[in-house]
């Protein structure tokens, strides 16, 4: 659709009415590079669309830099950043659409309400350190971290603006006339050796940002960017007003020599133990930009130089070089999920609810009738996450720590209250001896009795952890080098230690046949990956080997070969690597190039076929049995922001979409054979910041939607959904 021009004397009168197929509804803010607009997708998803100024659209070099920003933003989309929904850097006016995330910038928050409290500052330090850890793991150096590029939300800080310099942000430019950052938040090497800038420069910027958050001004302060530049290179920082417990850490971040600065992982470790007084930051209510007539909804005011971004499916990564890409299917509580459709059965606002009697086998009819149960009726929306174990369905939602549902009727048998202010619900984890667990990436793993929901043990994590059920054990990683295991029955710690040969080990898939858990560790530069297997009960490393490339374990083929995805330096998957199961992990290694690079959301392995699902819903079936591998089929579902895929019986594959739809694919012929409708709340579309995978149990599939509901459909007849 051709862009339509506005009229009148308004400063944005010549802005386009459309960016691609997105109608631009209101101006959220403007900067030297372009204007950020509020927009909506066809399904009602609220977006922030950055449109480049016309004067820069004609500059080929600027277009290349904008294309670089789009690529970088796609690579780091995750818990601490804003996912890119769509972009066209080659359009007449280049544009990029990200999810719209309400929340003030740190700059605006400090300007309006003064410095942060010590508890808020500690929380901000931990969140930004984790954000930088993940950004650097994705192979990206931000280069322009500053208060106006940090959004404060009730789920933690979000870092925005990747890989692009905006010419009016400062008077200081490189010798070629291109801006290299914002002087008060730049590292000495950015002035002295701009071509050698690495991840340590972002750590220096973090130190400056923390001083600003604690005091209202930076560690180097002057009205002249040239004086600030001199101070950054030669003077000691002014830390007056920074809390005493954080000042030494901030001072290390501001070291002149990049080598002397801590890494983000070391900053996270230095914050242990956590301050339990540091509650989540809840941004103050802010004024709203003018919306089109009839539009309502939370819409914060934005600083003139602050483009808006918002986050995507997540899942945890690794050490100095971390790519924030949604975790493939095999992530921690993998196998437990959500879904959709049928008879409505409402549930009042969740409270601690005692057990009811599930439907007996005699009551189960041979024909399955779909159902729809609402777990969360009001408040912030998020798709519930579900799991199936022992013939029972367990789900968690905002405000519901865990609930047991009758899989036949959708009736809630018992429920336990849970947290509300987080990115999404806990994910149920199948344990042992009649226990079911519920874990979140940023919280403890809690065990409940499957029968009546009575609380059991809790394994608290001081930092975001990944939980990997492995037989009668659960293996946990703190993301900064520590790894431990607990007994799934009692919650007693079995062992805790570093793994020899691994710097920051991450638990991977568990192989029940061998009783071994895969662990992996990627080198800081992403050129090598150490992969191995441990015994979950003891932590003994059974085997380990080093492989070329940035690899992530995904699962095993039918003959036991370990399957890993290889990631190109842009964060896209470019190959599948197989390690033979023979000789204790010392079997042959095969590297099979993919036909095209994939922005991988998740995988599902059946036999020798690896099904790779991209973030945008593109699904590829790749046969690893062929000598060089071969593509069996490609399917473009145009779903956008999807869950990990889940395999079901009868050549079926299922995945969920951010708007609550559940899709079914025939894996024998690569065809979409059914999908449910989007799930609305009060006539408006909700959005799940994390999209949990569906759950398949026999002849039914369970899904969830951002309206807070859980639903069930008949797996035997997807065409009737």
UniProtKB/TrEMBL annotation:
Annotated Protein kinase domain residues: 22-282
Pfam family, one: Pkinase
Matches recorded under PROSITE patterns: PROTEIN_KINASE_ATP (PS00107), PROTEIN_KINASE_DOM (PS50011), PROTEIN_KINASE_ST (PS00108)
Disordered: annotated segments: 289-323
Record flagged with keyword Nucleus: no
Binding annotation for ATP: 50
SUPFAM superfamilies named in the record: Protein kinase-like (PK-like), Quinoprotein alcohol dehydrogenase-like
UniProt entry tagged with the keyword Kinase: yes
Xref: CDD domains: STKc_PknB_like
Segments of skewed composition (Pro residues): 310-319
Keywords per UniProt: ATP-binding, Kinase, Nucleotide-binding, Transferase
PANTHER family hit by this protein: MITOGEN-ACTIVATED PROTEIN KINASE KINASE KINASE 20-RELATED (PTHR43289), SERINE_THREONINE-PROTEIN KINASE YBDM-RELATED (PTHR43289:SF34)
Protein name: PQQ-binding-like beta-propeller repeat protein
Native source species: Streptomyces litmocidini
């Amino acid at each position: 659709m051709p862009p339509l021009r506005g009229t009148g004397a308004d400063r944005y009168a010549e802005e386009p009415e459309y960016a691609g197929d997105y109608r631009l509804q209101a101006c959220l803010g403007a900067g030297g590079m372009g204007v950020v607009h509020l927009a909506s997708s066809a399904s009602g998803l609220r977006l922030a669309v950055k449109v480049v100024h016309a004067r820069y659209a004609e500059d080929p070099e600027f277009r290349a830099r904008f294309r670089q920003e789009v690529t970088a933003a796609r690579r780091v989309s995750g818990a601490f950043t804003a996912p890119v929904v769509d972009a066209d850097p080659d359009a007449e006016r280049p544009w990029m659409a990200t999810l719209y995330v309400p929340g003030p910038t740190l700059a605006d928050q400090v300007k309006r309400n003064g410095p942060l409290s010590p508890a808020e500052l500690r929380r901000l330090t931990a969140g930004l350190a984790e954000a930088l850890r993940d950004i650097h793991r994705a192979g990206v150096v931000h280069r322009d971290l500053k208060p106006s590029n940090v959004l404060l939300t009730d789920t933690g800080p979000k870092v925005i603006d990747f890989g692009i310099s905006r010419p009016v942000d400062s008077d200081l430019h490189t010798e070629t006339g291109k801006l290299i950052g914002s002087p008060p938040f730049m590292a000495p090497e950015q002035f002295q050796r701009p071509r050698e800038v690495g991840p340590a420069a972002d750590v220096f910027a973090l130190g400056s940002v923390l001083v600003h958050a604690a005091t209202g001004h930076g560690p180097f302060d002057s009205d002249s960017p040239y004086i600030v530049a001199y101070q950054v290179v030669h003077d000691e920082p002014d830390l007056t007003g920074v809390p005493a417990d954080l000042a030494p850490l901030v001072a290390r971040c501001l070291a002149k020599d990049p080598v002397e600065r801590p890494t983000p992982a070391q900053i996270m470790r230095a914050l242990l133990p956590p301050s339990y007084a540091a509650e989540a930051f809840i941004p103050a209510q802010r004024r709203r930009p003018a919306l089109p007539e009839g539009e309502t909804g939370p819409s914060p005011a934005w600083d003139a130089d602050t483009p808006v971004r918002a986050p995507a499916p997540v899942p945890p990564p690794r050490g100095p070089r971390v790519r924030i890409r949604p975790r493939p299917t095999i992530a921690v509580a993998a196998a437990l999920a959500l879904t959709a459709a049928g008879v409505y059965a409402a549930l009042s606002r969740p409270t601690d609810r005692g057990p009811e009697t599930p439907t007996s086998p005699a009551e189960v009819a041979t024909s399955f009738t779909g159902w729809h149960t609402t777990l969360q009726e009001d408040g912030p929306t998020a798709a519930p996450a579900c799991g199936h174990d022992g013939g029972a369905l367990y789900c968690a939602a905002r405000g519901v720590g865990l609930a047991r549902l009758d899989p036949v009727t959708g009736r809630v048998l018992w429920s336990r209250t849970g947290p509300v202010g987080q990115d999404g619900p806990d994910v149920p984890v199948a344990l042992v001896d009649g226990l079911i667990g519920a874990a979140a990436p940023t919280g403890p793993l809690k065990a409940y009795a499957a029968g009546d929901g009575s609380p059991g043990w809790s394994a608290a994590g001081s930092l975001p952890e990944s939980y990997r059920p492995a037989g009668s054990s659960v293996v946990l990683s703190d993301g900064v080098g520590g790894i431990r295991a607990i007994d799934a029955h009692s919650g007693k710690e079995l062992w805790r230690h570093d793994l020899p040969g691994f710097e920051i080990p991450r638990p991977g898939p568990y192989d029940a046949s061998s009783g071994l858990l895969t662990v992996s560790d990627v080198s800081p530069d992403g050129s090598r990956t150490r992969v191995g297997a441990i015994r979950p009960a003891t932590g003994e490393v059974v085997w380990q080997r080093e492989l070329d490339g940035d690899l992530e374990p995904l699962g095993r083929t039918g003959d036991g070969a370990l399957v890993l995805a290889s990631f190109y330096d842009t964060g896209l998957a470019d190959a599948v690597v197989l390690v033979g199961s023979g000789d204790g992990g010392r079997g042959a290694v095969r590297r099979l190039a993919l036909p095209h690079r994939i922005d991988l959301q998740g995988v599902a392995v059946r036999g020798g076929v690896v099904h790779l699902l991209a973030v945008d819903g593109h699904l590829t079936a790749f046969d690893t049995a062929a000598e060089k591998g071969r593509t069996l089929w490609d399917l473009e579902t145009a779903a956008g922001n999807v869950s990990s895929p889940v395999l079901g019986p009868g050549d079926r594959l299922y995945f969920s979409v951010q708007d609550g739809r559940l899709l079914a694919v025939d894996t024998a012929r690569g065809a979409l054979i059914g999908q449910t409708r989007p799930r609305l709340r009060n006539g408006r579309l909700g959005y799940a910041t994390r999209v949990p995978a569906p759950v398949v149990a026999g002849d039914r599939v369970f899904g969830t939607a951002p309206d807070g509901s859980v639903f069930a459909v008949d797996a035997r007849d997807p065409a009737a959904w």
